[in-house]
Amino acid sequence: MSRRPNSGSRDEGQASVFVVAITAAVLACIALVWDAGGMLATRGQAGTIAAEAARAGAQQLDLAAFRATGERELAPAEAARTARSYLARSGATGTVAVEEARITVTARLDYESRLLPIGARTAQARATAAARAPD
């Protein structure tokens, strides 16, 4: 008479449920890390765009005021227009504020979640940078 080993055991399939649960958890962690990294990269890109837009705007000096007083002030309309144009060319949205010799730019970029299907699929990365008129 041949006997199968462990023929009275009832634990068939239990390891499979455990493997499926652990695999799902590991995949969820990988997706979270991937999307968090993508969001951080997008935030860095927004910071770079804000800084470059502020620098571009800070180059727009009010030459008439400089010739009259020797003070370096920005041409507010030109500085704001240049910074907004840089934002648009970079694919970002944002705000621009000009005060005397200083321009402040806030850039916003959208990040769409690639792997996480839970909750909001789009997040917004935002960064602010300022620049002064060159001395």
Describe it for me?
It is a single chain. This protein has one domain. It has 135 residues and is an alpha+beta fold. Strands 1-2-3 form a 3-stranded antiparallel β-sheet, with helices on one face. 21% of the residues are buried. A hairpin with a 2-residue loop joins strand 1 and strand 2. The chain starts with 13 loop residues before the first helix and ends with a strand.
Briefly, what is this?
The protein is α+β, with helices and mostly antiparallel strands and 135 residues long. Helix content is 50%, strand content 21%. The radius of gyration is 28 Å and the shape is rod-shaped.
Topology record:
Elements: H1 14-58, H2 63-69, H3 76-90, E1 93-99, E2 102-112, E3 122-132
Antiparallel strand pairs: 1-2, 2-3
Helix pairs in contact: 1-3
